[in-house]
Amino acid sequence: MTSRATQLIDQTGGQGVETGFGHGRIGIVDIGSNTVRLVVFDAPARLPIPIFNERVACRLGKGIGQTGKLNPDGVEQAMQCLARFCGLAREMDVEQFKMLATAAVREAADGKKFVKQVERICGFKVQVLSGEAEAHMGASGILGGSPNADGLFGDMGGGSLDLVSLDKGGYGKSVTLPLGHLRITEDAGGSPDKASKIIEKHLKKLPWLEATSGRNFYAVGGTWRAIARIYIDQIDYPLRVIDNFTMNVKDALELTKVIAGLSSSSLEQMSGVARRRADTLPLAALVMNRLLEMGQPEQVVFSGYGLREGQFFQMLPENLKQQDPLISACEGFAKRSGRFSIHGEEISEWILPVFPGVEDDDARLIRAAALMSDIGWTEHPDYRALHSFIRSLRLPIAGITHRERILLALSIFVRYNGKRRQYEVRQVRKLLQEDDDHMAIVLGLALRLSHTISGGVPGLLPRTKLVLKGNKLTLNLGEDRKLFMGIAVERLMNDLSGALQVEPVVL
Protein backbone atom coordinates (compact mmCIF):
# COMPACT_ATOMS: atom_id res chain seq x y z
CA MET A 1 0.00 0.00 0.00
CA THR A 2 1.46 3.37 -1.00
CA SER A 3 -1.15 5.86 0.16
CA ARG A 4 -0.06 9.16 1.72
CA ALA A 5 -1.41 7.98 5.10
CA THR A 6 0.58 4.76 4.95
CA GLN A 7 3.77 6.64 4.14
CA LEU A 8 3.22 8.92 7.12
CA ILE A 9 2.58 5.96 9.42
CA ASP A 10 5.82 4.36 8.31
CA GLN A 11 7.72 7.60 8.87
CA THR A 12 6.36 8.07 12.40
CA GLY A 13 7.00 4.50 13.49
CA GLY A 14 3.37 3.83 14.29
CA GLN A 15 2.93 7.00 16.34
CA GLY A 16 -0.02 8.29 14.32
CA VAL A 17 -0.63 10.77 11.56
CA GLU A 18 -0.30 14.24 13.05
CA THR A 19 0.97 16.41 10.22
CA GLY A 20 0.30 20.05 9.47
CA PHE A 21 -3.12 20.85 8.05
CA GLY A 22 -3.21 20.11 4.33
CA HIS A 23 -5.81 19.31 1.74
CA GLY A 24 -6.54 15.84 3.07
CA ARG A 25 -9.11 14.41 5.43
CA ILE A 26 -9.26 14.35 9.22
CA GLY A 27 -9.98 11.03 10.91
CA ILE A 28 -10.90 10.74 14.59
CA VAL A 29 -11.43 7.52 16.56
CA ASP A 30 -13.33 7.98 19.82
CA ILE A 31 -12.79 5.03 22.20
CA GLY A 32 -15.61 5.67 24.64
CA SER A 33 -17.03 3.77 27.59
CA ASN A 34 -20.08 2.70 25.59
CA THR A 35 -19.15 2.95 21.91
CA VAL A 36 -16.08 3.00 19.70
CA ARG A 37 -16.50 5.25 16.68
CA LEU A 38 -14.58 6.38 13.61
CA VAL A 39 -15.52 9.66 11.96
CA VAL A 40 -13.73 10.93 8.87
CA PHE A 41 -14.29 14.61 8.12
CA ASP A 42 -13.86 16.40 4.81
CA ALA A 43 -11.17 19.06 5.08
CA PRO A 44 -10.02 21.77 4.98
CA ALA A 45 -13.35 23.32 5.92
CA ARG A 46 -14.76 25.27 8.88
CA LEU A 47 -17.76 22.93 9.12
CA PRO A 48 -17.09 19.34 10.28
CA ILE A 49 -18.89 17.39 7.54
CA PRO A 50 -18.55 13.62 8.08
CA ILE A 51 -17.90 11.63 4.93
CA PHE A 52 -17.72 8.43 6.99
CA ASN A 53 -19.24 7.68 10.39
CA GLU A 54 -19.38 4.22 11.96
CA ARG A 55 -19.75 3.12 15.56
CA VAL A 56 -19.75 -0.16 17.46
CA ALA A 57 -21.34 -0.53 20.90
CA CYS A 58 -18.45 -2.33 22.63
CA ARG A 59 -19.40 -1.24 26.17
CA LEU A 60 -15.82 -1.18 27.38
CA GLY A 61 -16.97 0.45 30.61
CA LYS A 62 -19.55 -2.18 31.49
CA GLY A 63 -18.98 -3.35 35.07
CA ILE A 64 -16.02 -1.05 35.67
CA GLY A 65 -17.55 0.32 38.86
CA GLN A 66 -17.51 -3.17 40.40
CA THR A 67 -14.40 -4.75 38.84
CA GLY A 68 -12.20 -1.73 38.21
CA LYS A 69 -11.33 -3.27 34.84
CA LEU A 70 -12.49 -3.03 31.24
CA ASN A 71 -15.22 -5.37 30.06
CA PRO A 72 -13.34 -8.40 28.54
CA ASP A 73 -15.97 -8.95 25.84
CA GLY A 74 -15.83 -5.24 25.03
CA VAL A 75 -12.04 -5.36 24.74
CA GLU A 76 -12.26 -8.18 22.21
CA GLN A 77 -14.89 -6.31 20.18
CA ALA A 78 -12.94 -3.06 20.38
CA MET A 79 -9.75 -4.65 19.06
CA GLN A 80 -11.62 -6.03 16.08
CA CYS A 81 -13.36 -2.78 15.14
CA LEU A 82 -10.28 -0.62 15.81
CA ALA A 83 -8.21 -2.74 13.43
CA ARG A 84 -10.91 -2.18 10.80
CA PHE A 85 -11.14 1.56 11.50
CA CYS A 86 -7.41 2.10 11.19
CA GLY A 87 -7.32 0.08 7.97
CA LEU A 88 -10.12 2.21 6.55
CA ALA A 89 -8.30 5.40 7.56
CA ARG A 90 -5.27 4.29 5.60
CA GLU A 91 -7.33 3.43 2.53
CA MET A 92 -9.18 6.77 2.70
CA ASP A 93 -5.89 8.69 2.60
CA VAL A 94 -6.65 10.37 5.91
CA GLU A 95 -3.97 13.00 6.39
CA GLN A 96 -4.52 13.79 10.07
CA PHE A 97 -5.54 10.94 12.35
CA LYS A 98 -6.27 10.92 16.08
CA MET A 99 -7.23 8.08 18.40
CA LEU A 100 -8.79 9.34 21.62
CA ALA A 101 -9.71 7.30 24.71
CA THR A 102 -11.94 8.63 27.47
CA ALA A 103 -13.29 7.67 30.90
CA ALA A 104 -13.31 3.86 30.81
CA VAL A 105 -9.74 3.50 29.53
CA ARG A 106 -8.56 6.34 31.76
CA GLU A 107 -9.99 4.81 34.94
CA ALA A 108 -9.55 1.07 34.37
CA ALA A 109 -6.70 -0.74 36.09
CA ASP A 110 -5.93 -2.48 32.80
CA GLY A 111 -6.36 0.68 30.72
CA LYS A 112 -2.65 1.08 29.99
CA LYS A 113 -2.42 -2.54 28.91
CA PHE A 114 -5.35 -2.00 26.56
CA VAL A 115 -3.72 1.09 25.05
CA LYS A 116 -0.45 -0.73 24.38
CA GLN A 117 -2.32 -3.57 22.72
CA VAL A 118 -4.24 -1.16 20.47
CA GLU A 119 -1.10 0.71 19.49
CA ARG A 120 0.67 -2.57 18.67
CA ILE A 121 -2.18 -3.93 16.56
CA CYS A 122 -3.20 -0.69 14.84
CA GLY A 123 0.06 1.18 14.50
CA PHE A 124 -1.28 4.45 15.85
CA LYS A 125 -0.72 6.29 19.12
CA VAL A 126 -3.71 6.43 21.48
CA GLN A 127 -4.21 9.66 23.41
CA VAL A 128 -5.88 8.99 26.76
CA LEU A 129 -7.65 12.21 27.73
CA SER A 130 -7.66 13.46 31.30
CA GLY A 131 -11.05 14.34 32.71
CA GLU A 132 -10.36 18.06 32.29
CA ALA A 133 -9.08 17.64 28.73
CA GLU A 134 -12.12 15.54 27.81
CA ALA A 135 -14.50 18.16 29.21
CA HIS A 136 -12.77 21.04 27.44
CA MET A 137 -12.57 19.20 24.14
CA GLY A 138 -16.30 18.51 24.26
CA ALA A 139 -16.97 22.16 25.06
CA SER A 140 -14.78 23.10 22.07
CA GLY A 141 -17.28 21.23 19.93
CA ILE A 142 -20.11 23.42 21.20
CA LEU A 143 -18.10 26.61 20.73
CA GLY A 144 -17.09 25.56 17.22
CA GLY A 145 -20.73 25.45 16.21
CA SER A 146 -21.98 28.27 18.48
CA PRO A 147 -19.02 30.57 19.21
CA ASN A 148 -20.99 32.71 21.68
CA ALA A 149 -22.47 29.84 23.71
CA ASP A 150 -23.31 30.97 27.23
CA GLY A 151 -24.34 28.87 30.21
CA LEU A 152 -23.43 25.27 31.03
CA PHE A 153 -22.14 22.50 28.75
CA GLY A 154 -22.90 18.92 29.72
CA ASP A 155 -21.70 15.84 27.82
CA MET A 156 -22.98 12.48 29.05
CA GLY A 157 -20.98 9.50 27.85
CA GLY A 158 -21.14 5.93 29.02
CA GLY A 159 -18.65 6.30 31.86
CA SER A 160 -18.60 9.97 32.76
CA LEU A 161 -20.46 13.27 32.73
CA ASP A 162 -18.40 16.30 31.68
CA LEU A 163 -19.55 19.74 32.79
CA VAL A 164 -18.03 23.06 31.71
CA SER A 165 -19.35 26.54 32.44
CA LEU A 166 -19.36 28.78 29.38
CA ASP A 167 -19.24 32.58 29.45
CA LYS A 168 -20.23 33.98 26.03
CA GLY A 169 -17.70 31.81 24.22
CA GLY A 170 -15.13 31.51 27.02
CA TYR A 171 -14.40 28.60 29.36
CA GLY A 172 -15.07 28.71 33.07
CA LYS A 173 -14.96 25.98 35.70
CA SER A 174 -15.12 22.33 34.65
CA VAL A 175 -15.46 18.88 36.19
CA THR A 176 -15.74 15.25 35.13
CA LEU A 177 -18.06 13.09 37.24
CA PRO A 178 -18.65 9.29 37.30
CA LEU A 179 -22.25 9.83 36.18
CA GLY A 180 -22.19 8.40 32.65
CA HIS A 181 -25.35 6.51 31.69
CA LEU A 182 -23.68 3.09 31.99
CA ARG A 183 -21.87 3.96 35.20
CA ILE A 184 -24.81 5.45 37.11
CA THR A 185 -27.12 2.59 36.05
CA GLU A 186 -24.67 -0.04 37.26
CA ASP A 187 -23.60 1.78 40.43
CA ALA A 188 -27.23 2.30 41.43
CA GLY A 189 -28.30 -1.20 40.40
CA GLY A 190 -31.02 0.43 38.31
CA SER A 191 -32.63 1.95 41.44
CA PRO A 192 -33.84 5.57 41.01
CA ASP A 193 -33.65 6.16 44.77
CA LYS A 194 -30.06 5.00 45.01
CA ALA A 195 -29.17 6.89 41.83
CA SER A 196 -30.64 10.09 43.29
CA LYS A 197 -28.33 9.82 46.30
CA ILE A 198 -25.28 9.21 44.11
CA ILE A 199 -26.16 12.15 41.85
CA GLU A 200 -26.82 14.42 44.83
CA LYS A 201 -23.51 13.45 46.40
CA HIS A 202 -21.59 14.65 43.33
CA LEU A 203 -23.62 17.69 42.32
CA LYS A 204 -23.81 19.29 45.76
CA LYS A 205 -20.03 19.80 45.56
CA LEU A 206 -20.54 22.15 42.58
CA PRO A 207 -22.09 25.41 43.84
CA TRP A 208 -20.94 27.12 40.63
CA LEU A 209 -23.72 25.30 38.73
CA GLU A 210 -26.12 27.91 40.15
CA ALA A 211 -24.53 30.46 37.79
CA THR A 212 -26.42 28.68 34.98
CA SER A 213 -29.66 30.31 36.16
CA GLY A 214 -31.48 32.11 33.34
CA ARG A 215 -28.94 30.97 30.72
CA ASN A 216 -28.62 27.88 28.49
CA PHE A 217 -27.84 24.29 29.26
CA TYR A 218 -26.14 22.64 26.25
CA ALA A 219 -26.87 18.91 26.29
CA VAL A 220 -24.51 16.60 24.39
CA GLY A 221 -24.41 12.81 24.09
CA GLY A 222 -26.46 10.17 22.31
CA THR A 223 -28.47 9.22 25.39
CA TRP A 224 -29.57 12.80 26.04
CA ARG A 225 -30.34 13.28 22.34
CA ALA A 226 -32.77 10.35 22.74
CA ILE A 227 -34.67 12.56 25.22
CA ALA A 228 -34.95 15.25 22.55
CA ARG A 229 -36.25 12.70 20.03
CA ILE A 230 -38.94 11.55 22.47
CA TYR A 231 -40.08 15.15 22.98
CA ILE A 232 -40.05 15.88 19.24
CA ASP A 233 -42.25 12.83 18.68
CA GLN A 234 -44.58 13.61 21.58
CA ILE A 235 -45.36 17.17 20.48
CA ASP A 236 -45.25 16.36 16.75
CA TYR A 237 -42.52 18.95 16.24
CA PRO A 238 -42.24 19.61 12.50
CA LEU A 239 -38.46 19.87 12.14
CA ARG A 240 -36.61 16.69 13.04
CA VAL A 241 -33.14 18.19 13.37
CA ILE A 242 -31.57 17.62 16.79
CA ASP A 243 -28.77 20.18 16.54
CA ASN A 244 -29.87 23.40 18.26
CA PHE A 245 -33.29 21.97 19.13
CA THR A 246 -34.43 23.77 22.30
CA MET A 247 -36.81 23.01 25.17
CA ASN A 248 -37.87 25.37 27.92
CA VAL A 249 -36.69 24.18 31.30
CA LYS A 250 -40.21 23.52 32.62
CA ASP A 251 -40.96 21.03 29.83
CA ALA A 252 -37.52 19.47 30.19
CA LEU A 253 -38.01 18.94 33.94
CA GLU A 254 -41.41 17.35 33.42
CA LEU A 255 -40.22 15.08 30.60
CA THR A 256 -37.05 13.89 32.35
CA LYS A 257 -39.09 13.15 35.49
CA VAL A 258 -41.49 10.98 33.47
CA ILE A 259 -38.69 9.15 31.60
CA ALA A 260 -36.83 8.50 34.86
CA GLY A 261 -39.86 6.59 36.11
CA LEU A 262 -40.35 4.40 33.03
CA SER A 263 -39.14 0.85 32.56
CA SER A 264 -36.78 -0.10 29.73
CA SER A 265 -39.54 -2.19 28.12
CA SER A 266 -41.84 0.85 28.06
CA LEU A 267 -39.12 3.00 26.54
CA GLU A 268 -38.42 0.45 23.82
CA GLN A 269 -41.96 0.98 22.56
CA MET A 270 -41.43 4.72 22.16
CA SER A 271 -40.44 6.30 18.89
CA GLY A 272 -36.92 7.72 18.89
CA VAL A 273 -35.53 5.34 21.52
CA ALA A 274 -33.07 2.74 20.26
CA ARG A 275 -33.17 -0.57 22.12
CA ARG A 276 -29.54 -0.18 23.17
CA ARG A 277 -30.44 3.08 24.98
CA ALA A 278 -33.57 1.89 26.78
CA ASP A 279 -31.89 0.24 29.77
CA THR A 280 -29.81 3.29 30.74
CA LEU A 281 -32.08 6.13 29.58
CA PRO A 282 -34.18 6.40 32.80
CA LEU A 283 -31.23 7.24 35.02
CA ALA A 284 -29.62 9.39 32.31
CA ALA A 285 -32.85 11.40 32.36
CA LEU A 286 -32.66 11.55 36.16
CA VAL A 287 -29.16 13.04 35.97
CA MET A 288 -30.40 15.75 33.58
CA ASN A 289 -33.39 16.40 35.82
CA ARG A 290 -31.20 17.00 38.87
CA LEU A 291 -28.84 19.21 36.89
CA LEU A 292 -31.72 21.35 35.68
CA GLU A 293 -33.18 21.63 39.17
CA MET A 294 -29.86 22.83 40.54
CA GLY A 295 -28.81 25.08 37.65
CA GLN A 296 -32.26 26.48 36.70
CA PRO A 297 -31.32 27.40 33.12
CA GLU A 298 -33.82 29.17 30.90
CA GLN A 299 -33.74 26.46 28.25
CA VAL A 300 -32.05 23.24 27.20
CA VAL A 301 -30.23 23.33 23.87
CA PHE A 302 -29.47 19.91 22.38
CA SER A 303 -26.36 19.80 20.24
CA GLY A 304 -24.99 17.38 17.69
CA TYR A 305 -21.49 18.68 18.35
CA GLY A 306 -19.26 17.23 21.04
CA LEU A 307 -15.84 15.73 21.68
CA ARG A 308 -15.07 14.57 18.12
CA GLU A 309 -16.08 17.90 16.64
CA GLY A 310 -14.07 19.62 19.36
CA GLN A 311 -10.99 17.69 18.29
CA PHE A 312 -11.73 18.62 14.67
CA PHE A 313 -11.95 22.33 15.52
CA GLN A 314 -8.73 22.18 17.52
CA MET A 315 -6.93 20.80 14.46
CA LEU A 316 -8.06 23.66 12.21
CA PRO A 317 -5.68 26.50 11.32
CA GLU A 318 -6.44 29.83 12.99
CA ASN A 319 -7.84 31.49 9.85
CA LEU A 320 -10.57 28.83 9.63
CA LYS A 321 -11.30 28.90 13.35
CA GLN A 322 -12.15 32.61 13.10
CA GLN A 323 -14.75 32.13 10.36
CA ASP A 324 -18.48 32.35 11.06
CA PRO A 325 -19.67 28.70 11.05
CA LEU A 326 -22.93 29.50 9.24
CA ILE A 327 -21.39 31.65 6.52
CA SER A 328 -18.48 29.26 6.02
CA ALA A 329 -20.89 26.34 5.64
CA CYS A 330 -23.08 28.19 3.15
CA GLU A 331 -20.02 29.21 1.13
CA GLY A 332 -18.98 25.57 0.95
CA PHE A 333 -22.40 24.40 -0.22
CA ALA A 334 -22.57 27.26 -2.74
CA LYS A 335 -19.26 26.24 -4.29
CA ARG A 336 -20.42 22.65 -4.64
CA SER A 337 -23.93 23.46 -5.85
CA GLY A 338 -23.89 26.77 -7.74
CA ARG A 339 -23.73 27.20 -11.52
CA PHE A 340 -21.53 30.24 -11.76
CA SER A 341 -18.66 31.73 -9.83
CA ILE A 342 -20.85 34.66 -8.73
CA HIS A 343 -20.18 35.19 -5.04
CA GLY A 344 -22.91 35.50 -2.46
CA GLU A 345 -21.26 38.65 -1.12
CA GLU A 346 -22.08 40.38 -4.40
CA ILE A 347 -25.75 39.45 -4.09
CA SER A 348 -26.06 40.24 -0.38
CA GLU A 349 -24.46 43.67 -0.78
CA TRP A 350 -26.87 44.42 -3.63
CA ILE A 351 -30.05 43.46 -1.73
CA LEU A 352 -29.13 44.85 1.74
CA PRO A 353 -30.54 48.34 0.88
CA VAL A 354 -33.98 46.69 0.80
CA PHE A 355 -33.56 46.08 4.55
CA PRO A 356 -32.64 49.49 6.05
CA GLY A 357 -31.61 49.37 9.69
CA VAL A 358 -31.30 45.60 9.64
CA GLU A 359 -29.79 44.07 12.78
CA ASP A 360 -26.59 42.01 12.70
CA ASP A 361 -28.30 38.63 13.12
CA ASP A 362 -30.68 39.28 10.22
CA ALA A 363 -27.88 40.71 8.06
CA ARG A 364 -25.99 37.47 8.67
CA LEU A 365 -29.03 35.47 7.60
CA ILE A 366 -29.42 37.59 4.45
CA ARG A 367 -25.81 36.86 3.59
CA ALA A 368 -26.36 33.13 4.14
CA ALA A 369 -29.47 33.17 1.93
CA ALA A 370 -27.56 34.98 -0.82
CA LEU A 371 -24.87 32.30 -0.73
CA MET A 372 -27.48 29.52 -0.89
CA SER A 373 -29.69 31.17 -3.51
CA ASP A 374 -28.57 29.01 -6.43
CA ILE A 375 -28.56 25.55 -4.83
CA GLY A 376 -31.64 24.34 -6.72
CA TRP A 377 -30.51 24.94 -10.27
CA THR A 378 -29.95 21.24 -11.07
CA GLU A 379 -33.49 20.25 -10.06
CA HIS A 380 -36.43 19.92 -12.44
CA PRO A 381 -38.19 23.34 -12.57
CA ASP A 382 -41.43 21.85 -11.23
CA TYR A 383 -39.69 20.62 -8.07
CA ARG A 384 -36.93 23.21 -7.70
CA ALA A 385 -38.62 25.27 -4.96
CA LEU A 386 -39.72 22.38 -2.76
CA HIS A 387 -36.48 20.39 -3.08
CA SER A 388 -34.41 23.49 -2.29
CA PHE A 389 -36.64 24.21 0.71
CA ILE A 390 -36.32 20.69 2.13
CA ARG A 391 -32.59 20.59 1.44
CA SER A 392 -32.04 23.93 3.20
CA LEU A 393 -33.97 22.68 6.24
CA ARG A 394 -31.85 19.57 6.57
CA LEU A 395 -28.36 20.70 5.59
CA PRO A 396 -25.70 20.03 8.25
CA ILE A 397 -25.04 23.68 9.03
CA ALA A 398 -24.08 25.08 12.42
CA GLY A 399 -24.48 28.35 14.26
CA ILE A 400 -28.18 28.68 13.43
CA THR A 401 -31.38 28.27 15.43
CA HIS A 402 -34.36 26.28 14.17
CA ARG A 403 -36.28 29.49 13.58
CA GLU A 404 -33.41 30.92 11.52
CA ARG A 405 -33.06 27.65 9.61
CA ILE A 406 -36.74 27.78 8.59
CA LEU A 407 -36.48 31.46 7.66
CA LEU A 408 -33.48 30.68 5.47
CA ALA A 409 -35.24 27.76 3.79
CA LEU A 410 -38.43 29.76 3.20
CA SER A 411 -36.44 32.59 1.58
CA ILE A 412 -34.88 30.12 -0.86
CA PHE A 413 -38.35 28.64 -1.47
CA VAL A 414 -39.73 32.08 -2.43
CA ARG A 415 -36.65 32.76 -4.54
CA TYR A 416 -37.67 29.73 -6.64
CA ASN A 417 -41.30 30.94 -6.83
CA GLY A 418 -42.64 28.27 -4.49
CA LYS A 419 -46.28 28.30 -3.45
CA ARG A 420 -46.50 28.98 0.25
CA ARG A 421 -49.61 26.85 0.62
CA GLN A 422 -47.39 23.79 0.08
CA TYR A 423 -47.94 21.25 2.89
CA GLU A 424 -44.25 20.92 3.81
CA VAL A 425 -44.01 24.70 4.17
CA ARG A 426 -47.17 25.09 6.23
CA GLN A 427 -45.90 22.45 8.66
CA VAL A 428 -42.88 24.46 9.80
CA ARG A 429 -44.11 28.03 9.40
CA LYS A 430 -45.69 27.87 12.85
CA LEU A 431 -42.16 27.96 14.32
CA LEU A 432 -41.51 31.40 12.84
CA GLN A 433 -41.91 34.70 14.66
CA GLU A 434 -44.45 37.37 13.77
CA ASP A 435 -42.46 39.29 11.13
CA ASP A 436 -40.42 36.36 9.77
CA ASP A 437 -42.87 35.41 7.04
CA HIS A 438 -42.78 38.90 5.55
CA MET A 439 -38.98 39.04 5.73
CA ALA A 440 -38.72 35.69 3.93
CA ILE A 441 -41.02 36.89 1.13
CA VAL A 442 -39.10 40.15 0.64
CA LEU A 443 -35.73 38.39 0.81
CA GLY A 444 -36.82 35.65 -1.58
CA LEU A 445 -38.17 38.16 -4.14
CA ALA A 446 -35.00 40.26 -3.87
CA LEU A 447 -32.87 37.15 -4.48
CA ARG A 448 -34.98 36.21 -7.50
CA LEU A 449 -34.61 39.73 -8.89
CA SER A 450 -30.84 39.68 -8.42
CA HIS A 451 -30.47 36.41 -10.32
CA THR A 452 -32.83 37.55 -13.07
CA ILE A 453 -31.00 40.83 -13.67
CA SER A 454 -27.51 39.30 -13.69
CA GLY A 455 -28.29 35.90 -15.16
CA GLY A 456 -25.90 34.65 -12.48
CA VAL A 457 -22.93 36.23 -14.25
CA PRO A 458 -20.40 37.66 -11.77
CA GLY A 459 -19.63 41.36 -11.98
CA LEU A 460 -22.96 42.47 -13.49
CA LEU A 461 -24.97 43.24 -10.33
CA PRO A 462 -22.55 45.96 -9.09
CA ARG A 463 -23.23 47.84 -12.35
CA THR A 464 -26.79 48.35 -11.08
CA LYS A 465 -28.15 49.66 -7.82
CA LEU A 466 -31.25 48.93 -5.74
CA VAL A 467 -32.36 51.60 -3.26
CA LEU A 468 -35.34 51.77 -0.89
CA LYS A 469 -36.06 55.34 0.21
CA GLY A 470 -39.31 56.73 1.50
CA ASN A 471 -42.18 55.19 -0.43
CA LYS A 472 -40.12 54.28 -3.49
CA LEU A 473 -38.00 51.28 -4.49
CA THR A 474 -35.58 52.44 -7.16
CA LEU A 475 -33.61 50.23 -9.54
CA ASN A 476 -30.85 52.17 -11.25
CA LEU A 477 -29.61 50.39 -14.39
CA GLY A 478 -26.94 52.95 -15.27
CA GLU A 479 -25.95 52.95 -18.92
CA ASP A 480 -26.82 49.28 -19.52
CA ARG A 481 -30.60 49.42 -19.67
CA LYS A 482 -30.73 47.21 -22.79
CA LEU A 483 -28.66 44.54 -21.05
CA PHE A 484 -30.60 44.51 -17.80
CA MET A 485 -34.17 45.58 -18.50
CA GLY A 486 -36.75 43.03 -19.61
CA ILE A 487 -40.32 41.96 -18.95
CA ALA A 488 -39.23 39.52 -16.23
CA VAL A 489 -37.22 42.23 -14.44
CA GLU A 490 -40.12 44.66 -14.62
CA ARG A 491 -42.52 42.04 -13.26
CA LEU A 492 -40.23 41.17 -10.35
CA MET A 493 -39.73 44.85 -9.49
CA ASN A 494 -43.50 45.15 -9.24
CA ASP A 495 -43.70 42.02 -7.04
CA LEU A 496 -40.95 43.20 -4.69
CA SER A 497 -42.40 46.72 -4.46
CA GLY A 498 -45.81 45.23 -3.75
CA ALA A 499 -44.40 43.16 -0.88
CA LEU A 500 -42.77 46.31 0.51
CA GLN A 501 -45.88 48.41 -0.22
CA VAL A 502 -43.90 51.06 -2.08
CA GLU A 503 -43.78 52.45 -5.63
CA PRO A 504 -41.35 50.83 -8.14
CA VAL A 505 -39.06 53.16 -10.09
CA VAL A 506 -36.59 52.11 -12.81
CA LEU A 507 -33.90 54.60 -13.84
Question: Strand order within the widest sheet?
Answer: 8-7-6-9-11-10
Number of helices: 24
Class from secondary-structure proportions: alpha/beta
**Low-pLDDT runs:** 1-23
Radius of gyration: 26 Å
Total beta-strand segments: 14
The number of domains is 3
Cα distance spanning the termini: 66 Å
Morphology call: elongated
Name of the level-1 CATH class of the largest domain: Mainly Alpha
What is the CATH fold-level name of the largest domain? Hypothetical protein af1432
Q: Report on the biggest sheet.
A: 6 strands, mixed
Arithmetic mean pLDDT? 87
Which homologous superfamily in CATH is the superfamily of the largest domain? Hypothetical protein af1432
Concise structural overview:
This protein has 507 residues and is of the alpha/beta class.
Describe the structure.
By secondary structure, the protein is an alpha/beta fold. It has 3 domains: 4-128, ATPase, nucleotide binding domain (Nucleotidyltransferase, domain 5); 132-309, Nucleotidyltransferase, domain 5 (2-Layer Sandwich); 324-506, Hypothetical protein af1432. It has 24 helices and 14 strands. It has helices at 4-12, 64-67, 72-91, 103-107, 111-122, 131-145, 181-187, 192-203, 222-234, 249-260, 264-268, 275-278, 281-295, 307-314, 318-321, 325-337, 344-351, 360-372, 384-394, 402-415, 423-429, 436-454, 481-484, 487-500; strands at 25-31, 36-41, 50-56, 94-101, 126-128, 151-156, 161-167, 170-177, 216-220, 245-248, 299-302, 465-469, 472-476, 503-506. It has a 6-stranded mixed sheet with strand order 8-7-6-9-11-10, sandwiched between helices. Strand 1 and strand 2 (36-41) form a beta hairpin. Helix 6 crosses helix 14 (307-314). The longest helix has 20 residues, at 72-91. The N and C termini lie far apart (66 Å). Mean pLDDT is 87; it is low at 1-23.
